[in-house]
Amino acid sequence: MRQPNSQPCSELILRETASQTAGPYVHIGLALDVAGLPERDEEVWNRMATPEAEGEFIEVVGTVIDGNGDLVRDALLEAWQADARGQYQPAFDLQNAFNSFGRTATTADGNSEWSLTTIKPGAVARGDGKVMAPHINLAIFARGINIHLQTRLYFEDEGEANAACPVLGAIESPARRRTLIAKREEVDDKVRYRLDIRLQGEGETVFFDF
Amino acid sequence: MQDDNKRFVERDRDWHPPAYAPGYKTSVPRSPSQALVSLQTSSVSELTGPDFRQLRMGRYDNDLLMNYRQGQGQDGLPVGERMILFGRVVDQFGKPVPHTLVEMWQANAGGRYRHKKDGYLAPLDPNFGGVGRCLTDEQGWYRFRTIKPGPYPWGNGINTWRPAHIHVSVMGPSISTRLVTQMYFEGDPLIPICPIVQTLKDPEAVETMTGRLDMARSRPMDCLAYRFDLVVRGELQTYFENQ
Ligand SMILES: [Fe+3]
What we know:
The structure holds two protein chains of two kinds. By secondary structure, chain A is mainly beta. Chain A has helices at 26-30, 32-35, 159-164, 166-169, 174-177; strands spanning 57-62, 64-65, 76-81, 101-105, 114-119, 124-125, 131-132, 135-141, 149-155, 181-187, 190-194, 197-198, 208-209. Chain A is 11% helix and 28% strand. The longest helix of chain A has 6 residues, at 159-164. Chain B is mainly beta. In chain B, strands 3, 4, 5, 6, 9, 10, 11, 12 and 13 form a nine-stranded mixed sheet that branches. In chain B, strands 1-14 form a two-stranded antiparallel ribbon. Chain B is globular. Classes of the chains: A mainly beta, B mainly beta. At the A-B interface, helix 1, strand 6, strand 8, strand 9 and strand 13 of A face helix 1, strand 2, helix 2, strand 4 and strand 10 of B. The structure holds fe (iii) ion. Fe (iii) ion binds next to strand 9 of chain B. Residues 162, 165, 167 of chain B line the site of fe (iii) ion.
């Protein structure tokens, strides 16, 4: 697929600017607080929803692990998800009770978990009529990652929807499919989902091209 | 769903650096060994993305000469070569991408980052933070004022240095167009020997990351200008539904 006509397209279209790693100091640019820089008037960060937002208020957490089994402590993640009704809300505004977009990061110290405060997304209908199970699209940027990795987080307690999801279904290996399913935890009456992202090797997370 | 009726030009993964590029050592344990799973049917999940027009920006968010000043007057300005970084965000069909978020970060003139983890012996500059952001205008133009960053050494090899560079991040109309790259400076002899630049196979790809000196936009007795255009994936209208 290139262009919807019979012309050779390679001369007609420009090359995309090439990707380069976000490097070890990505937080200076995209996660100022983590880098130790003062925050600006408004920052794009990990509180995607307030408790007033429609839907189930949840926390989503995890780590990023490399091929040696070590924590990746300098990753930046971007989340993109539908609201509780399965609609994306592109107009980002910190006054909104819910935003479809958020950012989070793993950190140099402690257990190095990323976290998002959000609401559980609704199922999302695709143009062909098939319905995708509730999911959060995640992009991962870090030193050593030459072009960001794209994955999805699904929810353990959506068994039926997950079984019918055309995207999960497109992953041949059931074992690999499971790498996208976040585990539900209840901590102090709060609902939390956990997904560890494994960049390489055993239990390697499924990454998508689109 | 209206957004399903469009697609983006397929991302050419041979043009971008591969995940596994052993000359850049950190990529070795951080590259997936399994193939990417291709999503065959476009969905609204990939075809949409955030619109940041309502994000409140500070007055100096795109002016790195001013946005970390501690001192007064000239004493509050960062050390280094004053420069303008500007360019246009267009898609692969040359169509401008208006109102999209462009973010950038960089080292100071000595090659040192204002980051907890950067311990390079070059000093921090009290008047330089190293971060900027802005939205492109109606025609896709963006603009920053900053100082030229210095090259810096890093531990990849015995004696490896990054060419002077500015990290640039652009959103584009969808999460499918999301791109983070680095701008290098035209003519820098460190470019061809940098292991991160060398992750790219095609020398033309390196050209897409090179900022060009633009004397016409430079300001006499003030600062030089470098132009860096960003090309994001082109949007295709498909017009016909699958039967
Ligand atoms: Fe850098």
